[in-house]
Amino acid sequence: MRGFLFYAAVALLFPGMAQGAGPEGVVEKLDSAVVMTSRAGKSTPVTYTMISREELENVNPMNSLPMALSLQPSVVAVNEGGTGLGYSKMTVRGSKGSQINVTLNGITLNDAESQEVFWVNMPALSGILSSVQLQRGLGTSASGPGAFGASINMSTASVGQHPYASLDMGYGSYGTFTSTVSTGTGMTDKGVYFDFAYSKGMTDGYIRNAFADIQSAFAVLGWMNEKNSLRLTWLYGDQRTGITWHGIDLEQYRIDRRYNPAGEYYDQYGNVRYYDNDTDNYTQNHLQLNYTREFQKNMIWTTTLNWTKGDGFFENYKAGDSLRDYNFSLDSDRKGDFIVQEAMDNHYIVLNSDLRYSSDNLSVTAGLNLSRYDGDHIGKVLWSDILGDEYDYSSHGWYFNNGLKQELNLFARAEYSPLEWMTAYADLQYRGIILDMKGPEDDQISLDYSTHWNFINPRAGLSFDLSSGHKAYLSAALAHREPGRSDIKEVIKSKMSIRPEKMLDIEFGYAYSSESLTVSANVYLMEYWDMLLETGRLSNVGYTIKENVPRSWRRGLELAAAWNPLTWLRADANLSLSTNQIEDYTEYVQHVDTYDNWAGTGRVTAYNYGRTTMLMSSSVVSMVRLSVSPWKGIASNSLKSTTLAIDGKYVGKQYLDNTMSDDRAVPQYFVSNLSLSHEFETGHGSVGISCHINNLFNNMYYADGWCYKNIVEEDGSFCYGVGIYPQAPLNYMVKLSYRF
Asked: What confidence score (pLDDT) does residue 11 get?
């Protein structure tokens, strides 16, 4: 891989990334209390990294937040369309998105049903955040679905001291254009402040139909005095993107890596056509009202009320389906082409309240979180060539079902320092969850289901503040996680049982920090019982079913460092080595009739593989970054801001299923990026320009995928299917900024 040997040599010297500093020039006392509940402090024995506002502002403007965090330890980020804009996702230590707890100002953003965060619904977050704390492992107690590998705690809570305004515009490859405008009053004499930002992003995408048209807005109106803070926050996201989640098979990848089958059909003459509106559309509004009160010098109470409204749909052209598939009773076996919509309409209401006491050697926080998620799932048929244009499709109901999920979360956390150099940590959380589902799914099978769970999640640890910048910590945490909606609905259909997951996370680490050097190392043992994993078993209607794997684990070593030997030179790097295994894995392979008829026969054959590696879990993930500001220490003009940065990310091989087959795997890849930035000072502010070159060495690689496996009874052979997501070759982005 071009460029890898150079970066590998540097990575051996500097295996880490430093923790980011906090934003400058902001009022943090009361306003930041809203996010402190879910965050680790400097003495909390939790593995985490801080990413500052400055770091977030300097990322490629094309990047969504997962792509902006891609250089952090143990993080692997990928974009379905091949660039940084549109549908993006990330894993941390191999843990996927539904296992990562994400909060904004202390309120969880994970969808209550799927437990996922769909980052495309909240574009341009990196432009409005004051900081991000990325916790790896179970971390601290947080509201919402349990963190089963990581948590991302984001904050918009920082009040500027002075009025400001800024404009950022970017243009790049594949017709990409981004713009952000923001302004704020700063803190006025009356304690009132107002901030507003609006962002717009558009791209054609790398693969066909990977276009994105996304926008977001952010507004804050607040008031603060010495003892009180009142804050109203509105966050808006709206996206229209082309469907890219199908991926492409390896044969097509070798012919045309920009191909995308979404919306493909044949006209009456046998010509290939594409439906123009094969799209995903979603709008989300978040409204948060926070009140914070300092009763005395060492006691703060904060309460937040949140309402999130989400609605949207994806639209597909379906070729060769029957009327029966869409709940039509007339002539139901006839097959033809259909245009359908599958929509969501949901409300999420949260009350979050906590009280924190702190003294010289003791800090205690207790709180509660109440939430209610009410989500409708609606299927509509817009058109069929069988029924024609004259049919009244609005009178026909394909499907409608509802999910109602309610949760009570109670926690208490304490940090006590009996000695000046030692801090003891204890954290106890209770989660009570009630789930009710009702109504038919798209195949008309009823999803009527009611259940509840009660979880107790304890955490404890010790941290040691040793002399001369040396620190060490150790911790143990136990957590439980309920199944997601997709897991439950397939269990309903297959009439199988399903159990919540359980994990014990043991972490111990060491860090050293001086003026020019920061190094850290930590070992983690994430031990799972009843983890939900894809095993290959399909339901009688062809759905992939997850099953509880009795025993599995993720165990690893994470190294991190940052070196600043000269004023103008900085090196950051990290290296993660891990083993991610299932103790005793059994794969279930479904039988189909023939190569031409994929109807399931109902037969399933089991194959035991013994100990195997989990799917999409690389054993090696590393990064190195060099930043050079050649005139920083000697220039008195704008040249001191000129910075050239180059980074490289290496991700080892990832298997697409749990059988460790090299034929169904994402090969190892290395990708490098280069950026050059400069800022001019003017009499009325500053003008900045930056250029970002992505995939500098033009590597042709893919970074994610899926697969299936069947037995064809016609001849007894195996039939495989693989879908992968090609990433863009060398491309660029230029950004122009103005701030005053």
From this structure: 37
Per the document, the length of the chain is 740
- Alpha carbons within 13 A on the beta-carbon side of 355: 3
Band the pLDDT of 261: cuts 50, 70, 90. very high
The answer to whether the beta carbons of residues 79 and 129 sit under 8 Å apart is no
**In which domain, by residue range, is 375 found?**
4-739
The answer to whether 464 touches 471, Cβ cutoff 8 Å, is yes
Say what the alpha-carbon torsion angle 140, 66, 698, 206 is, to the nearest 10 degrees. 160
- Range from 128-132, 162-166, 185-189, 399-403 carrying the lowest mean pLDDT: 128-132
Total of domains in the chain: 1
For tokens 């990928």, the residue is 78
Helix or strand or coil: residue 527? strand
Contacts of 148 (CB under 8 A, 6+ apart): 95, 99, 100, 138, 479, 481, 501, 503
**Cα–Cα nearest to 402, from 421, 375, 431:** 375
Phi, psi of 173 (to 5 degrees): -60, 155
- Kindly write down the DSSP assignment for every residue of 304-319, as one continuous string: EEEEEEEEEEEEEEEE
Average pLDDT over residues 526-550: 76
List pLDDT tens digits, range 341-360: 999 999 999 999 999 999 98
Cα dihedral value 123, 218, 408, 111, nearest 10: -20
Element (H, E) at 504: strand 501-513
- Inform me whether the pLDDT recorded for 542 exceeds 50: no
Tokens for 236?
């808006």
Rounded distance between C-alpha atoms, residue 114 and residue 711, angstroms:
30
For residues 416 and 358, the answer to whether their CB atoms sit within 8 Å is no
What is the pLDDT at residue 26?
A: 39
Three-class DSSP category at 699: coil
Place of tokens 């930056």: 690
pTM exceeds 0.85 for this model = yes
User: For position 491, what pLDDT does the model report?
Assistant: 78
Q: What is the distance between the alpha carbons of residues 157 and 106, in angstroms, rounded to a whole number? A: 11
CATH of the domain at 215: 2.40.170.20
Bridge partners of 413, per DSSP, are 365, 427
Question: What does the alpha-carbon distance between residue 430 and residue 61 come to, in Å, rounded to a whole number?
Answer: 40
Task: Report the greatest alpha carbon distance in the chain.
Answer: 82
What is the tens place of the pLDDT at every residue in 404-429? 999 999 999 999 999 999 999 999 99
Asked if residues 85 and 176 have their Cβ atoms less than 8 Å apart, the reply is yes
> How far is it, in rounded angstroms, from Cα 485 to Cα 450?
12
Residue 501: is its pLDDT beyond 90?
yes
How far apart CA 172 and CA 51 sit, in angstroms, is 25
Task: Express the helix, strand and coil content of the chain in percent, nearest 5 each.
Answer: 10, 60, 35
d(CA 105, CA 220): 12
Q: Are 688 and 180 in contact (CB under 8 A)?
A: no
Three-state DSSP class for 253?
Answer: helix
pLDDT at residue 110 in the model: 87
| Mean pLDDT value across residues 393-400 | 93
